[in-house]
């Protein structure tokens, strides 16, 4: 072999060997810990992680809970039905209750639930409480929390301005706890703070707000960028039944009825939840939201019928 060629090959082999050594030595640094991506990205830049916990009892597993799981609950990052008996199809957070699962023992049940949730406090950003007859649009909930921080202690839901100073959030419409709020309530309030009730009775939603406020959890009423409440404590039919009045009759000649305008309704297109939704309505709502896709583009006549605002 020509000496020049041999010298060239030796240099080339040396470079290749050096590259291999560098690759081996620096591979762990380049690959990095898979969790680093999470740690280096703020919660405002990644998808907020939401755990949904849904209050139920064994008698409602087949009547209500299964329909919640078949529809909206599967869009949470994780969901649990909170009760005392396992079910082959439902994800149950098992509770060790010495009292029967009835309304008058709801607060002792909720305290047990919160202690169980605390075990997941560092895995999720937000914790959404709902009932087995609540319907929630999880995508809208996830979008609304983007303008907030899970490290700020707050609760939000439909606020009733009665029963306790500052009001309380409807448990049926669902309320949201930030991670910081959950930690404060469990670490500082439940069975520890004198302003956090220990009396075993119903109205867990009232007591949640009392305990939260006692340890500096802020109760937000307006959520997201809409300026209106995004949680509705009744079924949607209730609203429209109230609206079927003289207003409908007087304006029947017009293309757009005033009560169908969002600015007249008091609802936002970013609405989050409804309460008292039966099993059939669960699937109807699911169909209308996720399967019905109106044909576009709109004709002039259909544009005229389109609700304003």
From TrEMBL:
It is an enzyme of class 2 (transferase). This is N-acetylgalactosaminide beta-1,3-galactosyltransferase. GO terms for cellular component: membrane. Gene3D superfamilies: 3.90.550.50. Keywords: Glycosyltransferase, Membrane, Nucleotide-binding, Signal, Signal-anchor, Transferase, Transmembrane, Transmembrane helix. It comes from Paragonimus westermani. It is a single-pass type II membrane protein. Residues 67-218 form the Fringe-like glycosyltransferase domain. GO terms for molecular function: glycoprotein-N-acetylgalactosamine 3-beta-galactosyltransferase activity; nucleotide binding. Pfam families: Fringe (PF02434). Its EC number is 2.4.1.122.
